[in-house]
């Protein structure tokens, strides 16, 4: 019996077993190394292209809107600024309807910045503490309803806060102001002459209550993104709960806290109705934070816009341009701080 093995035609062609390459096909493509991954072709799906185009278009649209706002404010402000009789930055009066007009923004800059700083000093530490309590201390049965209440506070309209501040907050701050005057009145900044507590300090307290939910919610979400391995490693090394927060949670969430604070500051800078309801405006710079008086950009625009002439409206728009620039500078500074500490962000952890 013939036991020889018959091979098909062409199967016995010489093949270099040691070279590790496949013979080149008839098309002439170069041989592939055995075990080497074949080159992959990047296939862009239609949905990816549409999403990328929409994202790019949204970003460009946002920049166009910002540029359009800046151009509009500048165009309306330049004309009235050229005929302004007083010093725009140092004048302590507002006669924008006069001919020629005489108005300044020094009082508005002072009132806006002071009330916003007071709000930030009060709100940010409390908001961070609440966020840490919800995310790391409170049991789930308490954390969930507490977070829900904080979310509801963020949805309350500003006019409701203003009415509450005028009817409840203002009448009950007299005792606190007298205490400040007794112990810190010698500074001049916290002296109190009596009367209704419609001052920049009251505005700062009200703004702190308004921005508290914003800072709390953003900070809470950032703290919940801290990698569990970091916290568990610190606990395994014998760290206490506070040491875990100080060494792992707060460094990781630092940029998020700054971002949350800037969101709250943006609302404090531009708040209108609540400030107009509580503040007793006067176009002077009040050294004492407890005495009635002062003013902010948003409050001044809201109170004077309806009765202003065309020239007066241009003057109000000029003050709005200054507020626009201040907001851009504040947000730019915040972005610079966040960029320097980007190693703590969740995206780079």
UniProtKB/TrEMBL annotation:
CDD domains tied to this protein: TM_PBP2
GO MF: phosphate transmembrane transporter activity
Membrane topology (UniProt): Multi-pass membrane protein
Keyword Metal-binding tagged: no
A single GO BP: phosphate ion transport
Record-level GO cellular component terms: plasma membrane
TM segment ranges: 59-83, 103-134, 146-170, 190-215, 268-290, 315-334
Domain ABC transmembrane type-1: 109-334
Presence of keyword Transport: yes
Pfam family, one: BPD_transp_1
Entry's localization field: Cell membrane
Region listing for Disordered, in residue ranges: 1-41
Record keywords: Cell membrane, Membrane, Phosphate transport, Transmembrane, Transmembrane helix, Transport
Residue stretches in coiled coil: none
Alphabetical list of InterPro entries matching this protein: MetI-like, MetI-like_sf, Phosphate_PstC, Phosphate_Transport_Permease
Entry similarity comment: Belongs to the binding-protein-dependent transport system permease family. CysTW subfamily.
Function: Part of the binding-protein-dependent transport system for phosphate; probably responsible for the translocation of the substrate across the membrane.
PANTHER family in the record: PHOSPHATE TRANSPORT SYSTEM PERMEASE PROTEIN PST, PHOSPHATE TRANSPORT SYSTEM PERMEASE PROTEIN PSTC
Protein's name according to its UniProt entry: Phosphate transport system permease protein
Annotated source species: Streptomyces albidoflavus
Gene name of the encoded protein: pstC
């Amino acid at each position: 019996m013939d036991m020889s093995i018959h091979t098909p035609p062409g199967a016995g062609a010489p093949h270099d077993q040691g070279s590790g390459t496949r013979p080149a096909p008839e098309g002439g493509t170069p041989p592939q190394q055995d075990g080497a991954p074949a080159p992959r072709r990047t296939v862009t799906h239609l949905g990816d292209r549409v999403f990328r185009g929409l994202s790019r278009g949204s970003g460009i649209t946002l920049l166009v809107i910002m540029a359009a706002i800046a151009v509009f404010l500048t165009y309306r402000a330049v004309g009235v600024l050229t005929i302004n009789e007083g010093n725009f930055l140092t004048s302590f009066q507002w006669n924008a309807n006069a001919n020629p007009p005489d108005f300044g923004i020094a009082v508005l800059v002072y009132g806006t910045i002071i009330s916003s700083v007071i709000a930030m000093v009060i709100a940010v530490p409390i908001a961070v503490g609440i966020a840490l309590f919800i995310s790391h201390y409170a049991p789930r049965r308490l954390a969930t309803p507490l977070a829900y209440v904080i979310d509801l506070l963020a949805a309350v309209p500003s006019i409701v806060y203003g009415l509450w501040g005028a009817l409840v907050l203002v009448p009950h701050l007299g005792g606190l102001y007298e205490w400040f005057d007794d112990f810190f009145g010698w500074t001049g900044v916290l002296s109190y002459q009596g009367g209704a507590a419609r001052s920049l300090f009251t505005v700062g307290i009200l703004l702190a209550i308004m921005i508290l939910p914003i800072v709390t919610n953003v900070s809470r979400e950032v703290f919940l993104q801290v990698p569990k391995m970091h916290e568990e490693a610190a606990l395994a090394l014998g760290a206490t709960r506070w040491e875990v927060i100080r060494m792992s949670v707060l460094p990781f969430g630092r940029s998020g806290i700054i971002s949350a604070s800037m969101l709250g500051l943006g609302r404090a800078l531009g708040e209108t109705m609540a400030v107009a309801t509580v503040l007793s405006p006067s176009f002077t710079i009040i050294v004492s934070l407890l005495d009635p008086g002062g003013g902010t950009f948003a409050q001044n625009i809201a109170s004077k816009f309806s009765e202003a002439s065309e020239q007066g409206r241009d003057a109000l728009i000029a003050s709005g341009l200054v507020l626009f620039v201040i907001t851009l500078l504040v947000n730019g500074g915040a972005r610079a701080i966040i960029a320097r500490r980007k190693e703590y962000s969740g995206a780079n952890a």
